Amino acid sequence: MADWTAHARAALEQGPAALVTILATEGSAPRGPGTRMVVTTGAIAGTIGGGALEHQAMAQARAILALDPGSWRVQDYPLGPLLGQCCGGRVRLMVEHLKGAPEADGLFEVELGERLTRTPLPGEGRGPELTKQLDLGLRRGAIGARGPLPEPGTRFIEPADTARRPLLMFGAGHVGRAIAAKTDGLPLHLAWFDTRPQAAETPGVALGTEDELVATAAAAPTEAAILILTHDHALDYRLTAAALGGSAAFVGLIGSQTKRARFLSRLAKEGVDAARLTCPIGLPGVDGKEPDVIAIAALAQLLALGRPA
To answer: How far is the C-alpha of 101 from the C-alpha of 12, rounded, in Å?
Structure first.
């Protein structure tokens, strides 16, 4: 569930809420470590894969709401006949009665005491830093799917949903807003940038100078996807050249075939290898210039890349 903290805060504004987290899996399982589901007495947000496992987890989550905030349980579930499932895997879940929600998503250290406490790792950022965050979490320990259940006093780095591909998007115009509106629930981790002061009115947009945005594009992690769709062709070009000089898995530029030809000609003259450039963006065969159509075609194209390793 992308940015589970936002779902948790919204639920807590209405009343008590519980959080179900997949700590670890083994073998075939419907979802991976870091998957979360927020549960209240009358609703859920997110999914840990549906079926009997999710039904059982929801029941445990609602039962824990009768206990004090901060109460927690860790439970193992073999995905076999006892649950009426045939996956054959194993899932270790943590269920907690939330006593609050962090201000932003990220990596957290969890301590299982009399009450569960969750502490953000110091200095952890978002966006292009996602890969470093995940590597840090793996180095600093995690909970396995087998062995003794965690006991009071156990401390560990809470798993992040490592299957999400970092998406660096430059531009908060009509198409950018349409794409951002459709990323929730997709295996993407959006970091969104613009240079224009008025873009600050759009939730989720980080403002920066042109040089800052160019540096961000150049430093994108290897598994990242980049979408360039600013208001300024000159800035589009700088971002494109910087992204192609980096190691991002996908570099997409909005524009016509004419824009593509002009950019390719200039990139060639400047010695920039443009073999990785995708322009126009969007899954081939999906026609239409409406922002929503472009957004769906572009997101489908990113999903077709598969999940990062």
So the answer is: 8
> Helix, strand, or coil here: 121?
coil
**The model scores a pTM over 0.70:** no
- As beta bridge partners, residue 118 has 110
In angstroms, rounded to a whole number, what is the distance separating the alpha carbons of residues 178 and 14?
A: 29
**DSSP strand pairing (90-97 vs 72-78):** antiparallel
Cis peptide before 33 (omega within 30 of 0): no
DSSP state of 274: -
Backbone angles phi, psi at 158, to 5 degrees: -65, 135
> Which residues, other chains included, contact 154 with Cβ-Cβ below 8 Å and sequence gap of 6+?
111, 112
Q: Say how far residue 166 (Cα) sits from the centre of its chain.
A: 7
Residue 41 phi/psi, 5° resolution?
-65, -25
pLDDT at 62 over 90: yes
Q: What are phi and psi of 135, to 5 degrees?
A: -60, -40
**CA triple 25-26-30, angle to 5 deg:** 60
Strand spans (E) along the chain: 18-26, 36-39, 44-46, 72-78, 90-97, 108-112, 116-120, 154-157, 165-170, 188-194, 205-207, 225-228, 250-253, 277-278
Strands 165-170 and 225-228: parallel
One-letter amino acid of 23: L
Strands 108-112 and 72-78: unpaired
Tens-place pLDDT, residues 1-10:
557 888 999 9
Q: What does CATH list as the number for 165-303?
A: 3.40.50.720
- Domain ranges for the chain, please list them: 4-157, 165-303
Per-residue pLDDT at 280 exceeds 80? yes
Query: 37: closest CA among 17, 26, 51, 21?
Result: 21
CA distance 296 to 292: 6
